[in-house]
Specification:
The complex is a heterodimer of chains A (about 475) and B (about 475). Chain A has about 475 residues and is mainly α. In chain A, the strands form two sheets. A three-stranded antiparallel β-sheet of chain A has the order 1-2-3, with no helix packed on it. In chain A, strands 4-5 form a two-stranded antiparallel ribbon. In chain A, a hairpin with a 2-residue loop joins strand 4 and strand 5. Chain B has about 475 residues and is α+β, with helices and mostly antiparallel strands. The radius of gyration of chain B is 27 Å and the shape is elongated. Chain B has a six-stranded mixed β-sheet. Chain B contains 18 helices and 17 strands. In chain B, about 55% of the residues are buried. Classes of the chains: A mainly alpha (about 475), B alpha+beta (about 475). Chains A and B meet through helix 9, helix 12, helix 13 and helix 14 of A and helix 1, helix 2 and helix 3 of B.
Chain lengths: ~475, ~475
């Protein structure tokens, strides 16, 4: 952590005014898109525009005020990015609702439900900032949250509450509410990994032998990575979900690599996962299918199971072209699950490549801000947590958008802040709250009397002693 | 830990760049290809529910879209469906043919030449409209062509093409039996699918545009090509004495071929003009045998055989003159038999080239492409494909063909006060079916305005009366009169 010392001379400004300005732009995106949906489909501005816009504005202003009070030094870009994405997602869901309703689908209130979930998400966001005044207190819950995370991942297997939707067993249903525990487990596991790795990073980093050019880890230190590998493979084979499996294992590997600064872990992990995925490919028919659909989507258009969904999404996005058909001008309902995993195809079809690029850039900026927070954070736990949250976000976005646009085989994951889905939306708002909390700590001016370097060095020293 | 964080940042940068590049590839580079996929219902629905442009002949819209009350908003209608079906083709939910297909991007409004119109529509928030297509067809000539085909006795199959020799403009193109494109434009897609299956199964092939899609032996009309090759060889002119007589014995064979009427063409030695006038088989078998396969193939290809030239309509069949025929086949090819086949369009091109000083012009159907406000966006320029014969050869042939009409087999095409050049043809396919009747002509001979080819493939006429002049001559005459008297 010697590099953080060079950043100490620089004092971050609060930049809350800049955040407010960006939030106005973000609201303009969300409310403007909502109005455009009304204009495009019904020929008039929606009658509830004021109520809807007012509610959205109230939520965003509440979040902003909470940041002003409880995390005044937090990064000013994250909240506007999230507000813009969430607002756009709501408008697109509203657009789909109108078509689903016109075509007599059972479910056509996705936008309204999503707004409720967003409200809950913002409440949790504010509560997180209020209650969690220092992210380091989460370190106490390392093993608790790890256990909870694993439990959540296992829940969908349990008979009675597990739910199999679209060929992947990643849902549970309790008291009428369906819930995707993986989204919450994601956050808990980041906390658990960060807490574990910050304690054991030296042992993992220093012990081991060098083979040719690569430092291979010690056999006994392979325990955690093997355990995580086992969980990932379990998700892959039992839940039939390559996306989540890749997400969790990738997250773990990245955090392990950063904590130990040893690329050897990436090699070991990558080989393990490659072998596991290949074994799954050979054994599990579903994985093979997805691979074939990815390579030759147009050949499997009419088959069942087939690539009809992906091809329809490709047709839609191709038709959208550079500037899209305009909200209400396309046929996004031709793509099954356009409101969840495939929401990006709706955006591509009706708002064009321009909007797809804007969305990808928004995600890219969120990841960039998260990694920046990791860079400037003064404590190892905060660094690892910010890195983990950023990495899981990046992986998820890559897997889902890459899948929908045919870059990689399709896997079922939600598009953060855009897709319909309560668990995902709420969990992602909490992720942003955690990032803002860490960034507030990192950007806050250092009290003169606090010799950070020494205390850090002390704690590290102590940890090593404790281990050996 | 900052160094690996920077590595991870770089890695994330690569991931997001990959997403951006792939999205651009999918939505921009592959956009057109995906749009052309026949399974892409978005494109079809969108074009189907748009105000499609009109297809115009003169000032009349023979195909246009009128508002309809259902969800597709517009209904395609054809004012004279049967007469123009071979040219317009049909526009259905499943596919298009003819001009509806070849000019689809203009009619649907997607063509790049309509970019400004589209931009204005986008900015003014009005629904996009398709552009209009102006055809080269001459209404009077087309009326005459269709009336002539309809008047054929019984269950006839036939086709007519008329070209403007100096430009290659298609003045008339008709084919029978044909179909009603209004039925294909129906919004009841089940009916449309049934209709398509039914017409495809129909052995009279009503969906084929015989004017460009059917190749048959051209019979005696091919003697124009043989005569052209003979004169181009430098050894003959209109007055050269050539062998006549009752029979020609095929080389490497014991078979002898006689003349159509069994006569001797008026003597053992006759002029080339006389040979064409009476369509003397013996003469042209002899000439073809003497000229050989290569010279005849060269001449035929110069007229457009062995290639296709019409770009505005799909389904054009290639007229064939094989380069690997043995001497007896080559001799037979001189009278348009054995492996030589031609479409009516090809024979019209031969006549048009002779009328146009030997220049073969590329035939075209689409004259102008117009924006929805009728401003002209693009006009087709006449284009010369090849120089088939010298202008002196063309003059000699014209004189000989005028003689054939004035005082020969092509007499039914005579027009009082106008010099008409023409040639009949009667071709055998197999003994058990009636021969095909051909007629090619152009007029006026001194200033050609129209070249015509007529093919009557079968009709309820006794084989004795089929001689091309009787069936095809009056149709060609009516078309030429319609063009000259306009």
């Amino acid at each position: 952590m010697s590099q953080t010392g060079t950043l100490m001379g620089f004092v971050h400004r609060r930049r809350r005014g800049a955040e407010l300005f960006l939030l106005v732009l973000a609201l303009a995106v969300g409310i403007g898109a909502y109005a455009a949906v009304g204009l495009g489909l019904e020929g008039e501005v929606p009658t509830d525009l004021v109520g809807y816009g007012g509610w959205l504005t109230a939520l965003i202003v509440a979040a902003h005020v909470a940041v002003r009070i409880f995390a005044p030094y937090a990064d000013p870009v994250l909240l506007p990015l999230v507000a813009a994405l969430n607002g756009l997602g709501l408008a697109v869901l509203h657009r789909l609702d109108l078509t689903y309703e016109a075509q007599g689908f059972d479910q056509h209130t996705f936008a309204r439900q999503q707004l409720t979930w967003m409200t809950l998400g913002v409440v949790l966001f504010i509560l997180g900032l209020v209650l969690l005044r220092d992210h380091r207190s989460l370190q106490r819950f390392t093993y608790t949250s790890g256990l909870a995370g694993i439990l959540l991942l296992v829940l969908p297997f349990l008979p009675g509450i597990g739910l199999n939707l679209n060929g992947a067993r990643i849902w549970i249903r309790v008291a009428g509410f369906s819930f995707q525990p993986g989204e919450v487990a994601k956050v808990l596991l980041v906390v658990a990994f960060a807490g574990y790795l910050v304690l054991h990073r030296d042992a993992l980093a220093l012990a081991g032998r060098r083979v040719v050019f690569v430092d291979l880890p010690r056999g006994r230190d392979l325990g955690p990575i093997l355990a995580m590998f086992g969980v990932s493979m379990m998700i892959l084979v039992l839940q039939n979900d390559l996306g989540s499996s890749l997400l969790f294992f990738g997250l773990f590997l990245v955090m392990l690599y950063v904590a130990t600064e040893r690329p050897g872990w990436l090699l070991v992990g990558g080989l393990l996962f490659g072998a596991g995925a290949f074994a799954a490919y050979s054994v599990v028919g579903n994985v093979q299918n997805r691979f074939n659909f990815w390579l030759h989507p147009l050949d499997y258009y009419d088959q069942s199971p087939g690539s009809g969904q992906l091809v329809e999404a490709m047709f839609g996005m191709g038709w959208g072209g550079l500037i899209g058909r305009g909200l209400g001008g396309g046929f996004p309902e031709r793509v099954p699950f356009a409101y969840s995993d495939f929401i990006l195809s709706t955006i591509g079809e009706e708002l064009g490549l321009t909007a797809v690029m804007a969305v990808v850039l928004c995600y890219g900026l969120i990841v960039e801000r998260a990694l920046r927070i990791a860079l400037i954070s003064r404590d190892g736990f905060g660094k690892l947590m910010a890195l983990g949250l950023g990495a899981v976000f990046a992986l998820q976005v890559f897997v889902v958008i890459g899948g929908v646009t045919g870059l990689i085989p399709l896997t079922g994951l939600t598009t953060p802040f855009l897709s319909y889905g309560g668990s995902s939306l709420v969990a992602n708002w909490v992720v942003i709250a955690l990032l803002l909390r860490i960034s507030d700590q990192a950007r806050r001016p250092v009290p003169r009397m606090d010799p950070v370097d020494e205390s850090e060095a002390d704690s590290e020293h102590t940890q090593v002693v404790k281990l050996t | 830990m900052n160094k690996p964080i920077r590595v991870v940042s770089l890695f994330c940068l690569v991931l997001f760049m990959a997403l951006l590049v792939n999205a651009t590839y999918l939505m921009y580079v592959r956009s057109d290809d995906l749009g052309k996929d026949p399974r892409n219902r978005r494109i079809i629905t969108a074009t189907f529910s748009r105000e499609r442009g009109a297809i115009l002949v003169g000032k009349d819209a023979i195909a246009r879209s009128v508002p309809s009350d259902d969800k597709y908003k517009f209904q395609r209608t054809y004012s004279e469906p049967f007469k123009y079906a071979p040219i317009t083709g049909y526009f259905s939910w499943y596919s298009q043919t003819g001009v509806e297909r070849s000019q689809n991007s203009v009619l649907a409004g997607d063509d790049s030449r309509l970019f400004v119109t589209r931009l204005v529509d986008l900015l003014s928030n009005s629904d996009p409209k398709g552009g209009n297509v102006q055809l080269t067809v001459n209404r009077a000539a087309q009326d005459a062509a269709w009336a002539g085909l309809e008047a054929l006795p019984g269950d006839a199959q036939g086709a007519v093409v008329a070209l403007e020799p100096t430009t290659g403009r298609v003045l008339a193109m008709a084919s029978t039996p044909t179909f009603d494109p209004n039925n294909f434009a129906s919004h009841d897609f089940g009916d449309v699918a049934d209709l398509g299956q039914q017409l495809n199964a129909d052995e009279r092939d009503p969906l084929i545009n015989r004017a460009i899609g059917t190749t048959l032996p051209p019979g005696s009309t091919f003697k124009l090509v043989t005569a052209a090759a003979a004169i181009e060889s430098g050894n003959y002119d209109a007055d050269s004495m050539v062998p006549g007589g009752f029979k020609f014995k095929l080389p490497q064979s014991s078979t002898s071929i006689g003349n159509y009427d069994g006569g001797n063409c008026g003597g053992g030695r006759i002029t080339l003009t006389r040979a064409l006038q009476v369509s003397c088989n013996v003469t042209f078998l002899t000439l073809a045998n003497e000229l050989g396969n290569e010279a005849l193939a060269d001449q035929a290809e110069a007229f457009g055989f062995n290639s296709t030239s019409l770009e505005d309509l799909g389904g054009q069949a290639k007229s064939l003159y094989p380069r690997d025929m043995d001497p007896p086949q080559t001799a037979m090819s001189g009278i348009g038999q054995s492996s030589v086949t031609a479409t009516p369009l090809q024979m019209a091109m031969v006549a048009a080239a002779i009328a146009n000083d030997g220049d073969v012009m590329r035939p075209y159907v689409v004259d102008e492409v117009r924006a929805p406000n009728l401003s002209v966006l693009d006009r087709t320029d006449p284009q010369s494909i090849s120089k088939a014969i010298s202008s002196t050869t063309a003059e000699e042939l014209t004189t000989m063909l005028v003689a054939t009409v004035d005082d020969g087999t092509a007499a039914p095409a005579q027009i009082p006060g106008v010099d008409v050049a023409g040639k009949t043809g009667t071709a055998q396919s197999s003994p058990d079916r009636p021969p095909y009747a051909w007629f090619v002509s152009f007029a006026p001979a001194n200033d050609p305005q129209v070249a015509v080819a007529v093919l009557v493939q079968s009709s309820d006429t006794s084989p004795d009366e089929i001689g091309g002049g009787v069936l095809g001559g009056p149709i060609a005459k009516a078309i030429m009169e319609a063009v000259i008297n306009r």
